[in-house]
Design goal:
This protein is of the alpha+beta class and about 280 residues long. It is built from six helices and 15 strands. The protein has one domain: Jelly Rolls (Sandwich).
């Protein structure tokens, strides 16, 4: 699927962009599936917030269990000063994660599209396996910032070889929180690592290297149309801003590694029941 130039660009820049690669019909199926999940989510039973601005202290057993479940996480700004939800349920959700590709037929079908396996094999994978899926809403007005980070901090393999796929479910632009990346930044050091001791329900984010995160003038805003796919290296620094607009910025993220790579026992994400999902 990939040309020699595309493979070279990926190795040089740490990412590739495919404009409107996914058909509108496939996007509609996923958006409908996400809506069905929200309809069945009982918000009175769990109100776990997902935020990246708290040093990842808000991780709990519900988050850990989401590795093998379909779980919904709320936006911090969905609550008023009295701790009550200030908008309808479907406008409060930050994301759904992390095993939709195993447990929901629409997401399973999508993950099995030949294009993804072909892409990974062109990038050098022999036996690519999908570890997690996240449907991110980036809600209007309250969609939270996702701070600068590197995926290898949270998905630890030896050797490091996780690849992220970021699929735009809707148009993404600067106003509604598109993805920003630092071209070539994957060749820099891993700045921090999030580890969870086996059997624990909370982890620890600790620094590894004091290299500063890029400024926006060192980064590129990837403004894309719905259906576009961004592929990026696990060491590539990336970021998205708070959504200040009246339009959501829905996206699906998939994370893939080589089957024979050593998956750290200290990763928060473990799949003893579900096992490998091979592409």
């Amino acid at each position: 699927m990939l040309s020699k130039k595309q493979i070279s660009d990926f190795n040089t820049n740490g990412y590739l962009l495919f404009d409107q690669l996914i058909k509108t019909t496939e996007l509609k199926k996923l958006r409908a599936a996400a809506s069905r999940i929200l309809e069945t989510f009982d918000i009175t039973k769990n109100q776990t917030i997902f935020s990246t601005t708290d040093g990842d202290r808000g991780r709990d057993q519900y988050f850990i269990d989401s590795a093998e479940n379909i779980s919904c996480f709320l936006e911090a700004d969905a609550f008023d000063k009295d701790g009550k939800l200030c908008r309808p349920k479907n406008q409060c959700i930050n994301k759904i994660g992390h095993a939709m590709h195993d447990l929901d037929p629409a997401f399973t079908h999508f993950a099995r599209l030949p294009v993804f396996g072909e892409m990974m094999r062109d990038l050098g994978y022999v036996a690519p396996v999908l570890w997690q899926s996240m449907y991110i809403f980036k809600q209007p007005r309250i969609g939270g910032e996702v701070r600068w980070h590197q995926d290898a901090s949270y998905l630890i393999t030896d050797p490091a070889n996780v690849t992220g796929l970021w699929i735009a479910m809707e148009d993404a632009h600067k106003d509604n929180g598109c993805l920003w990346v630092q071209p070539g930044g994957h060749r820099g050091p891993l700045r921090e690592i999030f580890e969870v001791a086996p059997g624990n329900s909370s982890g620890d984010l600790r620094p590894l290297d004091n290299t500063p995160w890029p400024s926006l003038d060192q980064a590129v805003a990837l403004e894309v149309a719905a259906g576009s796919v961004i592929v990026f290296n696990d060491h590539l620094p990336h970021y998205s801003s708070h959504n200040h607009s009246a339009k959501s910025r829905q996206a699906l993220t998939l994370h893939i590694s080589e089957e024979n790579a050593n998956w750290s026992a200290n990763n928060w994400l473990q799949r003893p029941k579900l096992g490998y999902f091979r592409l």
